[in-house]
Amino acid sequence: MREAAPVFHDEQSGTWHVFRYDDVQRALSEHARFSSRMGGDDPSETGQLFAASLITTDPPRHRQLRSLVTQAFTPKAVDALAPRISTLTDELLEGILSRGTADLIQALAYPLPVIVISELMGIPAEDRDRFKQWSDVIVSQTRAGGTNEDHHATNMEMTGYFLNLIEERRSRPGHDLISNLLSAEIDGQKLSVAELLGFCSLLLVAGNETTTNLIGNAVLSFTEVPGTIERLLAEPSLIPQAIEEVLRFRSPVQSMYRVTVADTTLGDVQIPAGAPLVAWIGSANRDERQFQHPDRFDVDRGQIRHLAFGHGIHFCLGAPLARLEAKIALEAVLSRLPGLALVPGAPLERMDSTIVYGLKTLPVHWHAA
């Protein structure tokens, strides 16, 4: 598509699709031309859940909302979480070390980010297991029939849960993000219930699903290329650079949605106002015009201007946290699971989603102590 139809109109759905790096970057960053608001005719509860969230608002409201949570995700605030992330990682690995084999998604990549974001939000430990089911359904590709019912039930359940949690925090505030958001004001106004719901939903999905997939995609990439794990063990300072290459090569977020504000041109194609548009981040990060040998995983790539965390005002707020969690988790996995490799012949299946990219399971084995 990058070659044959870099800006493509799907006449059946009415949606425009953008595939080249420069065009995707423009669609993600030119907010005055490409709006982030959810389609006004979106009847789904998912649309309502995210309708007033950071990811679906434009300036000036976006700037105001973002400023409320920025403090929780500054590099300094995130660095303060490092000891807790290290402790959690060690505890999770301790449970599997002697076994010599495990599904690394189930054992580490999924629980670690869920626990971290739950603790930040003040969500009780016993409720965490529901998170995986909810976020999986939300990011899954909508299909006719049963999946729509799954979406409906999940969104009702999730909305009810967060509304109860918000009410609880109103009467008994704690030292957590939801309590902070409840007390916050913009121009003397408290956040609306829709905005509070938007924050909860976004933090739930973005705070766990994408980091889970980053960790899983990294281990898959490291085990696929002979010598990579040995190299990273010998030079652990390369791990942050290797993570950036994972973000480019197997982007956890594959696409983002926009709506054109006015008639506009991308490439040499005219797109009308009000048109729904999908910016394909996964394609942009493999664009031959931007990256040499883009289909090769290369930890020596150096400066990688990938779009995995978006671009412009919507650049992922949680990027420092995702990078830190991945770094701590991967350092521990490589050093504590010697001889790490994929279980030979194990089927690898990707998640049912056009939005995120990750594995359902990642069966690995190592030399147990």
Instruction: Give the number of helices.
Output: 15
Strand content: 5-15%
What is the CATH T-level topology?
Cytochrome p450
Rg, rounded, reads 21 Å
CATH architecture annotation: Orthogonal Bundle
How many beta-strand elements?
Answer: 12
Counted up, domains total 1
What string, H for helix and E for strand, traces the elements in order?
EEHEHHHHEHHHHHEEHHHEEEEHHEE
Mean pLDDT: 90
Share of residues in helices: 40-55%
SSE topology sketch:
Elements: E1 7-10, E2 15-18, H1 21-29, E3 34-35, H2 45-50, H3 61-70, H4 75-79, H5 82-94, E4 101-103, H6 104-109, H7 111-121, H8 128-139, H9 146-171, H10 177-183, E5 185-186, E6 189-190, H11 193-224, H12 228-234, H13 239-249, E7 255-260, E8 264-266, E9 269-271, E10 276-280, H14 281-284, H15 319-336, E11 341-342, E12 363-365
Parallel strand pairs: 2-10
Antiparallel strand pairs: 1-2, 3-7, 4-12, 5-6, 7-10, 8-9, 11-12
Helix pairs in contact: 5-7, 5-15, 7-11, 8-9, 8-11, 9-11, 11-13, 11-15
Structure characterization notes:
It is globular, with a radius of gyration of 21 Å. The strands form four sheets. Strands 1-2-10-7-3 form a five-stranded mixed β-sheet. The protein starts with 6 loop residues before the first strand and ends with a strand. 48% of the residues lie in helices and 11% in strands. The protein contains 15 helices and twelve strands. α7 runs antiparallel to α11, α9 (146-171) packs across α11 and α11 runs parallel beside α15. It has a single domain (7-358), classed as Orthogonal Bundle (Cytochrome p450), CATH 1.10.630. The chain has 369 residues and is α+β, with helices and mostly antiparallel strands.
